[in-house]
Design a protein that fits this description.
alpha/beta; Double Stranded RNA Binding Domain; five-stranded mixed beta sheet; two-stranded antiparallel ribbon; 3 helices; 7 strands; 35% helix
Amino acid sequence: MIKKASYILFLMVLLLQQGCGIYSFTGASIPPEAKTFSVQQFPNNALLVEPLLSDQFSNALRDRFMNQTSLQMAGTNGDLSFEGEITDYSTSPVAIQSDQTAALNRLTITVNVRFTNRFDDSKSFETKFTQYVDYPSDQDLNSIKDGLIAEITEMLVDNIFNKAVVNW
């Protein structure tokens, strides 16, 4: 009896998925006719250039779509297409103490993203996404920046993925 109920539940879930386009358990809702995505290299146009940031960010966005959707990666002109540039990479003091020194510093990264949905232009957008992480001012940025950049990149990619394909 339990086996039969599990089978029926599986069929119901399968049928519900068919009515809503392509749906993944990550929450992505992608038009059923979409088969490919493309992510162009995001050049680093910030005043302060971190040499590996462009590759790291572009690859993280590609990886997210490869790992969490069934879309195939295309070199250019994907059904879902991303392009843009990194517009800010900066560090600034925050949490100023009474002796006029910063207790924390903030690393901020901003990317401008142009997303094109070839099948539904109303979902296309151009938006700036900004994320930051605070770190103790007694730590040298060069010794911790790889971890901070990875953390910020993950947050940026989450925001971009959600805006592009998660319809909440």
